[in-house]
Amino acid sequence: MAARKAIVAGQFYPDNEKECRAEIVGCLANRPMKEKLPENIVAGIVPHAGWVFSGDLAAMVFSAIEKVNKTVDTFIIFGAAHSHFGTSAAVYDKGSWNTPLGEIKIDEELAAEIMEKSKGAKANCDVHRAEHSIEVQVPFIQYIFPKAKIIPIMMPPSDYSVQLGIDTAECIKKIRDKKIVCIGSTDLTHYGPRYGFDPEGNGPWGINWAKNVNDKAFINLAIEMHPERILIESMENQNACGPGAAAATVSAAKTLGKTRGTLLAHTHSNDVMERRYGQTGSESVGYAAIVY
């Protein structure tokens, strides 16, 4: 099976190895770790915008995992489904992915076990070819965990995402010779006219509401580990574009014995624009970094 090619290299992150590595180093340096980390990390939630906007938050999660776990054999990455809304999660179950940092293998054995265990997971590599929410995480894994494998799972916002998280965790529990971590990829509130969502009006007031009220409602549910309520909250208030991915991740972490998440950072694109370029706008997208 041919390796999946990178589709957003050169758009969301650099398209050559040297620049890619340099930007990862910059992302890792931008956000020093201030929070006390769990003794063991089994899961994390990361954003998936272009690295210039959210790469430092994604890097925080993978850096935290490395600090605590040292090594990871396989990352199960639940991705936000921007265009796939089927009756099951789409598992990329065979072969490998390519990025500017080279090739990373699929953990085919574990992928098969997850699909055998869960009715909500089916092999479907095709839907991954046009999605970016998983791809933008992969170079961080390759850089920090060069021996790791991945299992990309595209996760629509559906009730089966909670059960799939449970089923995935049950598969993980049976494996004694591997360290496995689940990652959920989601951005938070997409606010402003371009996104068709501005209930508090345009301008600073609305953007502040999106971050400090709407985003926080999702973050609190994620930290307090309520996967079913994450799905409902996200559908009602549009404060996550990957609620299925987040719900599956929280559900898996809960099944693996976690009782609370740790928020490492929370920001939004308007904050980044102001800090980097001295500009603000009428639209914004929220980002959070959480570990379990």
Structural summary, described in words:
With 292 residues, the protein is an alpha/beta fold. The protein has a single domain (17-31, 38-291), classed as Protocatechuate 4,5-dioxygenase, Chain B (3-Layer(aba) Sandwich). Helices cover 40% and strands 19% of the residues. It is built from nine helices and eleven strands. The chain has helices at 17-30, 51-69, 108-117, 138-144, 160-173, 204-224, 227-237, 243-255, 269-277, and strands spanning 43-46, 74-80, 89-91, 96-99, 102-105, 121-123, 149-155, 180-185, 190-191, 262-268, 284-291. Strands 1, 2, 3, 6, 7, 8, 9, 10 and 11 form a nine-stranded mixed beta sheet that branches. A two-stranded antiparallel sheet has the order 4-5. β4 and β5 form a beta hairpin. α6 packs antiparallel against α7. The longest helix has 21 residues, at 204-224. The two termini are 34 Å apart.
Q: Which term fits the overall shape?
A: globular
* Number of discrete helical segments: 9
Task: Tell me roughly what share of residues is in helical segments.
Answer: 40-55%
pLDDT averaged over residues = 95
How many beta-strand runs?
A: 11
- CATH homologous superfamily heading: LigB-like
What is the terminal separation in angstroms?
A: 34 Å
Largest beta sheet, briefly? 9 strands, mixed
Q: List low-pLDDT spans.
A: none
Task: Please identify, by name, the CATH architecture.
Answer: 3-Layer(aba) Sandwich
Structural class: alpha/beta
Computed over alpha carbons, the radius of gyration is: 17 Å
Q: What portion of residues belong to β-strands?
A: 15-25%
What is the CATH topology? Protocatechuate 4,5-dioxygenase, Chain B
Q: What is the count of structural domains?
A: 1
- The H/E string reads HEHEEEEHEHEHEEHHHEHE
Q: What CATH first level would be assigned? A: Alpha Beta
